[in-house]
Amino acid sequence: MSRERRKGGRAGKAVAITAVAVAVVGAGAAALGFDPRTLFDEAEAEANTETPATAEVVQQTLTETVEYTGDLGYGDVIGLDCLVNGTYTALPAAGDRIGRGDEIYAVDDRPVVLLYGSLPAYRSLTAGTEGADVEQFEKNLSELGYDGFTVDDEYTDATAGAVEEWQDDLGLEQTGSVDLGQVVYAPGKIRVDAVAVELGDAAGPGGALLDYTGLDKVVTVEVELDDQELVTVGDAVTVTLPDGTEATGTVTDSESLVGEETGQSGDTEEVTYLEVTVAADDPAVFDGLDQAAIDVGFAGDTAEDVLTVPVEALLGLAEGGYGLEIVSGDATEVVGVETGMFADGSVEVSGEGLEAGQSVVVPS
């Protein structure tokens, strides 16, 4: 995964390339025995009869974008251990998607079912049991369509009656109680990432069973610690797909980690960085992509209420620096300007007599 930091500001390079190209044309023409200045004079005379393309000097706020390249995946991988003794008689496959009420696996032909919640199952539930885990279970039972009980923190005889119906639908013995290991809780639907056992293997409490993730694809980015001020959970970012499509996203998690990096000398050194998770505001933008490299743009420095022009309006001056060709009626005048921030194809400019609303010449 790349931690390369990229930001705007390449207009100077483009101008330099243009100057070199003109010099090469002149030298080549001289070698052929004619004066290239006549061509430029004719081109200039023709150009002077045409109306130049222009853009407006705009007063606005520019925000620098700092880009990092991240990896598309399914986010954190979570391990699931078995909680019961027996033999594995049914297992999912990597890539399977499992929702509320669905069987995850089976031990001795007894299904273990996925329910939604943040509190792990840690005990058996039976009539008379009270607690937050009871309420969490009853919410799931209600969402699965079972009724006749009140969703609260008390496991009553009415709850037991609904559980018997649920157990009957699962093909289980109708005890009215929920044994530890019969249900597994996750925040929502899960995707099986890898399975560590095979059918017929012995099952037992604490044995590694499988790894799973959420369903939504996310981008994981390694951000240099020097740029940590760019990253706040909840911040808006831009994501750029391999085909150039841009979309909006949100920082959903940020964690400081320590890793190793090989320096230019070949020595390995310890580095601290931020592992940042970004979710697309519309998850569908990642449809059809798998393990792709995604560029993520974080909002950086801001220049408020500054005069700006398109980057291509800048002229490289012979004496150095930059200028703009200002349009005034039927005439134009080149004036020197100071440049500031580059962002989103625009550049901050300042100079004597420069005002918002003026027209500047841009390449047509």
TrEMBL record:
Q: Where is the Peptidoglycan binding-like domain?
A: 131-179
Record-linked InterPro entries:
Peptidoglycan-bd-like (IPR002477), PGBD-like_sf (IPR036365), PGBDSf (IPR036366)
Q: Name it.
A: Multidrug efflux pump subunit AcrA (Membrane-fusion protein)
